[in-house]
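Below is a filled-in request sheet from our internal design queue. Each sheet records the structural input a requester submitted and the sequence that came back. We keep these sheets so that new team members can see what a complete request looks like end to end.

REQUESTER: design group, bay 2
PRIORITY: normal
MODE: inverse folding
CHAIN LENGTH: 281
BACKBONE (tokenized):
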């Protein structure tokens, strides 16, 4: 009989409560300051990151090999036979490859590492779907075969106040050169098929950039029923305002707010706003 475990990295933006409830194994990214290192979501919060950005912009790095090895050994000791790992885009992080290589050293665990080519709550949605399929008793093979379809129905968009932090973190992708801060142009960013950031369009000022985000959602809602999450990085009040503005739209099945993880906050900076959209039918 198959006993299937689910591993996710901390870029998925699922809350610790949901991770515990769904029996998900969390692999934290690392956040490094000059004075020490922290485990994403475990040792440091997003608000702490934003509060210190003017003093120091920390570095982010892969989950530690020790943390990953401990998870895999624990799974073996607990009698798990299969592992599905859901990861942040390989175009933005080496986490996918590090998990894949580590699992090769554990042949007793039949595994599949899924590169979502996305991040934040869109990645988290994939993980939630996998967790639900495990709970329903689906086989490893059935779940793996459904992953591409799950992923195809998820998209995310976000806008930032400044590209400063994406630049400093080396995560600028194909957004470079598309914005003029002096002109108050804000990019609407998503990821391409390779999982790399690119600008869909630009808007002048904060209000217009938020309107553009909502217009992309409205386009999806014309033909699909959707679950929607409002994403934010240190912008809870604005996220609540956006959520309220969406409540009257047809075809939204569920609506929630998600704060991005501390590690992603390093790169997005304070004021990030976005939407995660899951097409259901």
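RETURNED SEQUENCE:
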């Amino acid at each position: 009989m198959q006993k299937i475990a689910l591993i996710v990295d901390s870029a998925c933006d699922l809350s610790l409560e949901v991770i515990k409830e769904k029996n998900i194994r969390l692999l934290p990214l690392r956040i490094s300051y000059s004075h020490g290192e922290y485990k994403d979501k475990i040792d440091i919060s997003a608000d702490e990151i934003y509060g210190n950005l003017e003093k120091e912009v920390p570095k982010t790095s892969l989950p530690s090999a020790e943390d990953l090895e401990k998870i895999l050994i624990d799974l073996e000791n607990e009698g798990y036979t299969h592992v599905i790992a859901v990861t942040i885009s390989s175009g933005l992080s080496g986490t996918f490859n590090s998990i894949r290589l580590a699992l090769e050293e554990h042949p007793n665990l039949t595994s599949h590492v899924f590169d979502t080519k996305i991040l934040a709550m869109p990645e988290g949605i994939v993980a939630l779907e996998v967790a639900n399929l495990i709970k329903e008793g689906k086989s490893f093979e059935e779940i793996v075969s459904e992953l591409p379809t799950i992923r195809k129905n998820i998209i995310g968009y976000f806008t930032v106040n400044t590209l400063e932090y994406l630049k400093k973190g080396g995560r600028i992708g194909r957004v470079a050169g598309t914005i003029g801060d002096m002109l108050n142009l804000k990019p609407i960013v998503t990821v391409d098929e390779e999982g790399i950031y690119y600008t869909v369009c630009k808007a002048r000022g904060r209000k217009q950039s938020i309107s553009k985000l909502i217009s992309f959602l409205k386009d999806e809602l014309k033909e699909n029923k959707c679950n929607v999450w409002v994403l934010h990085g240190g912008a809870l009040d604005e996220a609540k305002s956006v959520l309220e503005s969406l409540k009257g739209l047809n075809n939204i099945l569920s609506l929630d707010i998600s704060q991005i993880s501390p590690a992603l906050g390093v790169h997005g900076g304070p004021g990030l706003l976005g939407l995660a959209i899951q097409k259901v039918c």
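SHEET NOTES:
- The mean pLDDT is 92.
- The chain has two domains: 4-28+63-152, 154-279.
FILED BY: M.R.
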